[in-house]
Amino acid sequence: MMTRNTVLKTIHVACRDLGLNDDSRRDLQLLVTGKASLTQMSAAEQVAVLEALKARGFKPSSGKTGRSHRCPATRGDIRYCHVLWRQLVLAGAVDLPGAAGLNAFIRARFEKAWGAVPFDVDGLRDWKQIASVIEALKAMCARAGIVLTGGPGRERAE
């Protein structure tokens, strides 16, 4: 069961996610409960407003269960590694999707040659190591029948 404060916070998050301004939120609250102010509502009425927001497309997520969304890597070449890995996942060439799979691949493929690998692919900084990973991923794409187009450095999967 959510506490009153949690319900209020979730309502405000839902309105932000759905792009509702304060006036639109108050109009919705008035429509659902007959009251424009959240503070004047009972807990049941606040939950009814939250359910109305869910019916309009809000999908609540818990921030306490871990990262549900990974921020993109700051380096373009690292992002490209993620793109190539995703193409391999979509083609069914690898079993473990996401950064966890890419990290496992890098550890298995390069740990002996490099002596040590970063815990996370986004931690790679040496351009030679990153280039080695990209070339290995491109070779895997070729073996999986993934055609990369767009010219050198601008490849896209078809």
Query: Mean of the pLDDT scores?
Result: 84
**Runs with pLDDT <50, length 5+?**
none
Largest β sheet strand count, sense and barrel closure: 2 strands, antiparallel
Label the structural class: mainly alpha
Alpha-carbon Rg, integer: 23 Å
Give the total of domains. Answer: 2
Order of helices and strands: HHHHHHEE
Distance between the termini: 47 Å
Number of helices: 6
Largest sheet, order of strands side by side? 1-2
Oligomer: single chain
- In total, how many beta strands? 2
What helical percentage do the residues reach? 55-70%
Strand content: under 5%
Apparent shape: elongated
If you had to describe this structure to a student in words, what would you say it looks like?
- This protein has 158 residues and is mostly helical.
- The chain folds into two domains: 4-62; 76-157, no CATH class.
- The protein has six helices and two strands; from the N terminus they run ααααααββ.
- Strands 1-2 form a two-stranded antiparallel ribbon.
- β1 (148-149) and β2 form a beta hairpin.
- α2 packs across α3, α4 crosses α5 (98-114) and α4 runs parallel beside α6 (127-143).
- It is elongated, with a radius of gyration of 23 Å.
